[in-house]
Amino acid sequence: MSSNDTIRPAAGASPTPAGSNDSEPVKAIRLRHPWRNVFAVVLILGFALFIIDAAGRPAYDWPAVAQYVFDRRITQAALNTLQLTVYSMVIAIMLGVVLAVMRLTPNPVVKSLAWFYLWIFRGTPVYVQLVFWGLISIIYQSIDIGIPFMEPLYSFETNAALNTFTLAIIGLALNEAAYMAEIVRAGLLSVDKGQDEAATALGMSWFQTMSRVVLPQSMRVIIPPTGNEVISMLKTTSLVTAVPYSFDLYTRSRDISAETFNPIPMLIVASIWYLFFTSILMVGQHFLEKRFARGLGDRQPDRTESTQTGAITGTLPVIGGNQPTVVRPAPGGLPPINPPPRDPGPVNPGSGDVK
Amino acid sequence: MTDVNTQAGASVAGPPMVLAEQVSKSFGSNEVLKSISLEVRRGEVMCLVGPSGSGKSTFLRCINHLEVLSAGRLSVDGELIGYREANGKLYEMAPKEAARQRRDIGMVFQRFNLFPHMTALQNVMEAPLRVKGLPKAQVEQNALDLLARVGLAERSSYYPAHLSGGQQQRVAIARALAMEPKLMLFDEPTSALDPELVGEVLDVMKGLAKSGMTMIVVTHEMGFAKEVADSLVFMDGGVVVESGDPDEILTNPQHRRTQAFLSKVL
Q1: How far is Cα A139 from Cα A129, in angstroms, rounded to an integer?
Q2: For the ABC transmembrane type-1 domain, which residue ranges apply (chain A) (predicted)?
Q3: Where does residue B211 rank: exposed (0-12), middle (13-18), buried (19+ CB within 10 A)?
Q4: A302–B200 C-beta distance less than 8 A
Q5: What is the count of residue pairs from A and B with beta carbons less than 8 Å apart?
Q6: What angle, rounded to 10 degrees, do the helices at A263-292 and A62-69 form?
Q7: Beta bridge partners of B31
């Protein structure tokens, strides 16, 4: 096997006989870092003091926090906030991919249109945009679908068709799409041009090249900032009161505290839920990143496979496949294109006589 | 080598595999190819040699329409590349038609360009599965056979990052062969490899040449050219300086430019 010489020893393999027992491990007294320890103790003490003080401070009103954190109005609002986040992010990511591709097309009109979109939606505050969406039914009283300048086929009252929840999602999604477009564009540009060429040379269409080769590789670049955006979006939902939609987590907890005249515990309740969701999102992001780092991390492909035998025949687990694949040597009919013994003679036959 | 020649000579039926007629290519005002005319017969192995920037790679990329010609005509197996001819007029091909032409032309790149997020096996299976839409079991068996042919059966589940450069290039050759091309283009396939690993890739290419594949190889490996090639073309400054029998050119170059180049690389 020509490739045998590159095989690394398996994890459990016995160490090489020479040199493993000869050298002694370094025995040196470790460098001490006294100030490092002092600083750490001071920080821990300071933090402990803050916690003890906060636990007893009446203004935090912890009993009220405990009473409201699982209040039905709050849990329902938390669910609404989560829905706002998920729906608007899903729309934003899809629209972002479209806008990113538009910016990378050779068509100047399409390119400028995408640029214009970004200019508007990134250049104005999301709060202002949300207020605008709240007023959409005043600007456009009805939505008509049909051929321009003709009797419309369908016509909706804007007010009836779009409730504040929908408008909040539209507002958040369209704003976010502008940011997602830039993230996706950076991801697409990060993929080596050779990948595109290799796929094209194999006869893959533009769409296949994008979806099978370029996008999966760009995910590694796209996911970390997108995780950022999702977490940012979760918190931006607290602005939907501008639409005005008032059943999200923040607005709801403010409404409750307006009745109880006790705002601080309600802020803590809202924060607990925001933190809970962001923690879950961070875990999700970690697993997504692992998924798209396939083939790029330093992880070994097959720890279980006994690579030392170098046998051609055997069962190999195929990553991504469900059942193991039986690897057979080439059937007799096919001549190996890799002739194992290299012709010693004419490989580079005396370059001297060529000169 | 002589029997390969006669074999190739005997099987010349129909149009030549590649026919380039006064092919020119400019990038802006920079003329990279100047009226190149070449013919590659069925089963022939042609080596393109020459200094960097002489247009070898660009010419190769013109053959599968990765670059668009500025002037001239180029056809593969009698079919015009990138254009349709009707009523004496040329019509630019839709991307779909160009993709169909590329299916039959395998290409191997200097920097391998394997898909890093797929295993060796998935790399080889991708195009037959997605482009040709063949059934998975058949594609997988064929891919495993191909990996065995390039000596990498036991590496099928490895990602490119865990393969050496030579192994990656062999996977890349298997990937190109999976589409059952009638023509293989090699763009400096060993230039990015450690000297130790060049041999294993050249071995695979020699085996492929012996199996009767039509190949155009841009290379700096003169030993390979001498041993395997049926014809050799020396290019410089976008023109063909000298072409013909590899032994003849390598041992007795006629043109002064060829002599100067060969004295440096041999």
Answers
A1: 14
A2: 78-285
A3: middle
A4: no
A5: 186
A6: 60
A7: B26
| Segment B174-190, tens digit of pLDDT | 999 999 999 999 999 99
Residue type, B11: S
The alpha-carbon gap from B14 to the nearest alpha carbon of chain A, in Å, equals 25
Residues 6+ positions from B46 with CB-CB distance below 8 Å: B38, B40, B215, B216, B217, B229, B230, B231, B232, B233
Helix or strand run (H / E) with residue B199: helix B195-210
| Residue that is written with structure tokens 């790679």 in the block | B57
Give the containing element (helix H, strand E) for B233. Answer: strand B231-236
- The C-alpha atoms of residue B251 and residue B257 are separated, in whole angstroms, by 14
A341 part of contact set with chain B, CB < 8 Å: no
Q: Please tell me whether the peptide bond between A244 and the residue prior to it is cis, using omega within 30 degrees of 0.
A: yes
Q: In this complex, is the C-beta atom of A327 within 8 Å of any C-beta atom belonging to chain B?
A: yes
Q: Do A346 and B114 count as a contact with CB atoms less than 8 A apart?
A: no
Residue A328 has pLDDT above 70, yes or no: no
pLDDT digits (tens, 9 = 90+) for A12-25: 444 445 555 678 88
Reported ipTM: the value is 0.90
The amino acid at residue A159 is N
Q: Measuring CA to CA, how many Å separate A286 from each of A270, A279, A290, B224?
A: 25, 11, 6, 49
Look at residue B229 and tell me whether its pLDDT is greater than 50. yes
- Residue A139 CB partners (closer than 8 Å, separation 6+): none
DSSP letter for each residue of B48-93: EE--TTSSHHHHHHHHTTSS--SEEEEEETTEESSEEEETTEEEEP
Each residue's pLDDT tens digit, B83-137 = 998 888 999 999 999 999 999 999 999 999 999 999 999 999 999 999 999 999 9
Q: Which pLDDT band holds residue A158 (cuts at 50, 70, 90)?
A: confident
Answer yes or no: are the C-beta atoms of B15 and B71 closer than 8 Å: no
β-bridge mates for residue B47, sequence order: B217, B232
User: Cα–Cα distance between A349 and B136 in angstroms, integer?
Assistant: 45
- What pTM was estimated for this model as a whole? 0.76
**Separation CA B204–CA B227 (nearest Å):** 14
Given phi > 0 = left and psi -120 to 50 = alpha, else beta, which region is B43? left
* CA nearest neighbour of B191 among B23, B13, B52: B52
Give dist(CA A272, CA A268) in Å, integer. Answer: 6
How would you classify residue B78: left for phi > 0, otherwise alpha for psi between -120 and 50, otherwise beta? left
Residues paired with B80 in a beta bridge = B75
Contact A295 B227 (CB under 8 A): no
Give the residue ranges of DSSP H helices in chain A.
Answer: 34-56, 62-69, 72-104, 108-123, 126-134, 136-139, 158-161, 164-190, 193-201, 206-208, 215-236, 249-260, 263-292, 351-354
The residues in A 33-92 lying below 8 A from B, measured between CB atoms, are none
Alpha carbon distance B251, B73 (integer Å):
33
Asked if the model's pLDDT at residue A340 lies above 50, the reply is no
Q: How far is A274 from A276, CA to CA, in rounded Å? A: 5
Which chain A residue has the Cα nearest residue B213?
A337
